[in-house]
Amino acid sequence: MNKNTLIGFVLIAVVLVGFSWYSQPSQEEMRAQFVKDSLEQVAKQKAGQAAKIAAYKQQQAAKEQVAADTTALFYKALTGKAQDVVLQNAKLAVTLSTKGGTVTKAYIKNEKGSRRYVGHNIADKTGKSDDLGGVTLFSGKDQSLNYTLVAKEMNISTGDLFFEPTAVTDSTVTLTAEAGQGKSLIINYRLGGDYMLHVSLRTVGMAGLFDPNTTTLGVDWHEKVKEQERGFTFENRYARLDWKESEGGTDYISEAKTKKETTEEEIDWIAFKNQFFSAVMISKDNFQKGGQLESTLYDKKDQENQPVRYLKDLKAQVRTSFDPTGAKPSEFEFYYGPNDFYILKQVEKQSTFGKELDMQRIVYLGWPLFRYINRWFTLPVFTWLSDWGLPMGIVLILITILLKVITFPMVKKSYMSSAKMRVLKPKLDEATKQFNKPEDQMQKQQAMMAEYAKYGVSPLSGCLPMLIQMPIWVAMFNFVPNAIQFRGENFLWMSDLSTYDPIVEWSTNVMLIGDHLSLTCVLYTVAMVLYTWITMQMQKDQMVGQQAEQMKVMQWMMFLMPLMFFFIFNDYSSGLNFYYFVTLILSAGIMMVLRRTTNDAKLLAILEARYKENAKNPQKMKGLAARMQALQQMQQQQMQQQQGRDNNRKR
Fold first, then answer.
1. What is the pTM of this model?
2. Which of 162, 222, 517, 536 would you label with 249, given CA atoms 20 to 30 Å apart?
């Protein structure tokens, strides 16, 4: 990078900026284009609305025509009165409507003596919520499910039919829609002992009414995922549409996007999930490729005055196998329950389809490395400690202490590397004092590396142990917000570890902060400032020459990081902030104890003895330090060659 190169870059930038300015349209042209685009957009919207109205009128006319024809297919089933049928066990209650023959409400019951599945009554602001002993996952028009069959005469939509309930018990019901003499559509429901609802759909005596090529059944599933937890923005990060490919892994639509996906492979199941609960639909014969999956974001501000707020609008339009003869039913299984890793893992055993479902992947544990840590360390240890009946806050503290014990050897090694550089600082200052000019910095670095080698010290040996700890910190970042075990659990001042703990709240949304101030976030920020100050003080003692000057600039950047994290984590759960707070306090304590228990004089004496030994048996640098030194030497040679070429040009 010389003067000519810089001039070239400046000229290129001037040309690009000048061309952009010259090419931009005038104000009149921009205004005309804006008017044109607006008119086209309005025309498109009117055309779309007109098409929808025409389709609706056509559909209604067809229904009226069928209703007037007493010989039409499903004539009797097109009229009637909707009734509710409730199936329930100790954990789940589902309400079925005879209008449409599908589930209209799923109520997850709370475990006795626990608050884990107690409704927070946050989404329902009418004061009439029935979430006193459990959570209403959806009800009424929040969710709809429609099966479509293509017959010769007409398309059969279950949402238009009234079914007759028979064989009703607490766990079973048969819903029948009469299509004509000796012809019917039957849906059988059976509720298991847990959170599984088993469904089969078949026709009786209707084989001749379908086209011979009809082998599929259309499934149109839709849910408006409502806010269940305190903190709209935070919960929205974990609400999404997931699915599993039959011959592959799981996939999902990003939580942060409004997006449509077309499935390229057959899939086993589709999940509509929020942070802690999910509705999952499983097909025995798979959902065929080419299905349409869609996720639409809702904005909190647009729903401020609504009685119920929604996070996302999730839709799935898919097809699955159908036998028009009725010999083989189309079978489905529904899971309405908590996003608990081990409960979801048991679904595979409770299913009658014999598939490898992997539904535990609905609980997001992070990218592969972090998922592995959470799956085989965090979850087992967390479950083991929870089984003791300890408060969840104590469990978090114990996990933090355990992780600190495991990582202590690495932390100590990192600290001792810094301590060695600290006690060698006077010698490094003496050995590099002749390299104080800016152009001598490369030589200074080489002299420092050579001096470290004489004492058997590698300045890089303290970096790797600290980097090894990073996956653990990130793994916990993924684990805590997704652990339903924290939901409704209180500790100290925190009423619910799964959401934020406000000390101050206000009605308007303040940019970057939101509408509250979380106490654990404040404590975490203060702890990070304290820890940063301690580490900066320790690093200051080992800096040589210009490094100390650079450190003065760096420390301001380091102190800005806690402020940045405050704005990020103010909306996060108090459990996660509390974990990081405890981690930083313990880390600061460990660093202070190591500093007080390290005898600098003895450490220097050990290094001096090593220096004398190395003087008798000189050894070359090894590993990363040797490669760094070689790189520095190569850079120095390149700089010298460039300086030589520049001098030749001047001559």
1. 0.80
2. 222
